Amino acid sequence: MMAQPAPSSAPAPVPRHIAIIMDGNGRWAKQRSRPRTFGHSEGVEALRRTVEAAGELGVRYLTVFGFSTENWRRPIEEVNALFDLLRLYVARDLDRLVKEGVRVHVIGSREGLQPDLARIIADAEAKTRHNDKQHLVIAFNYGGQDEIARAARRIAEDVAAGKLAPGEVTIERFETYLDTAGLPPPDLLIRTSGELRLSNFMLWQAAYTELVFSDILWPDFDKAALQAAIDAYQRRERRFGGAEPERP
Ligand code: FPP
């Protein structure tokens, strides 16, 4: 029988990468008899607080779900409002993110995005690309299935062009074709607003991610809520498919 690892008195580490499904903006606005778009703009304030809190708590990578490939089904006014909020967020926060050492990555399809938005995204990534203190990954026009299908398409193109042999398509090689190439997988995924679904978010990357669901509606999310999710994560044992418990 394998020996149990000695109980460790060292505190469990803070997750290196936290991914968040920022849900509940619409309900938060409805509770206040305000339009859904008001909930989204308050959601940006919660995003600002959370980026700052993640930095203070030592979370190096933060990924947030800003707009999903399925969100195109919402009324056009709401879709446009979400696009405008990304424009506004970059316009207002990019200089500070550059100064504070935050690298911005945007994952998702650029197809269907207005050209100015694609430019804004490219500019935010370029201006922060030498930063490494903290990473903010914004999933925008993102769907996990779409990301995997796009990766598979590019692999097929490379195989057809003779750049890659079918036998070279391993898990590690596949990952280099994903939007998240070079980023670590999330250790912890938080979904707010009491919904218990992944909703097509980081399907590949979340293979061994710990899931924490919070009843808080996203516009109310703050440092204490982030700390509470980290506390829950630190109480878990991670096994990665093995038998031996492994503390996070
Ligand atoms: C889910 O709430 C939230 C979204 C679809 C969008 C999240 C966007 C933001 C927080 C702001 C903009 C993002 C960036 C990156 C600047 P919901 O509308 O589904 O809420 P409901 O379930 O209560 O209706």
What does this structure look like?
This protein is of the alpha/beta class and 248 residues long. It has a 6-stranded parallel beta sheet with strand order 3-4-2-1-5-6, sandwiched between helices. The longest helix is centred in the middle third of the chain and has 24 residues. The radius of gyration is 19 Å and the shape is globular. The site of farnesyl diphosphate has 20 residues, from helix 1, helix 2 and helix 3.
Question: Topology, please?
Answer:
Elements lengths: L16 E5 L3 H7 L4 H22 L3 E8 L7 H24 L2 E6 L7 H13 L6 E9 L1 H17 L10 H5 L12 E4 L18 E4 L9 H12 L14
Parallel strand pairs: 1-2, 1-5, 2-4, 3-4, 5-6
Helix pairs in contact: 1-2, 2-3, 3-4
Strand order of the largest sheet: 3-4-2-1-5-6
Number of helices: 7
What ligand molecules are bound, each kind once? farnesyl diphosphate
CATH superfamily: Decaprenyl diphosphate synthase-like
Helix/strand structural class = alpha/beta
Please indicate the count of domains: 1
Give the biggest sheet.
6 strands, parallel
CATH topology assignment: Undecaprenyl pyrophosphate synthetase
Mean pLDDT rating = 95
Number of strands: 6
Order of helices and strands: EHHEHEHEHHEEH
Question: Compute the gyration radius: what is it?
Answer: 19 Å
Overall, the morphology is globular
Which percent bin holds the helix content?
A: 40-55%
Strand content: 5-15%
Q: Give unreliable regions as ranges.
A: 1-6
CATH class, named: Alpha Beta
CATH architecture: 3-Layer(aba) Sandwich
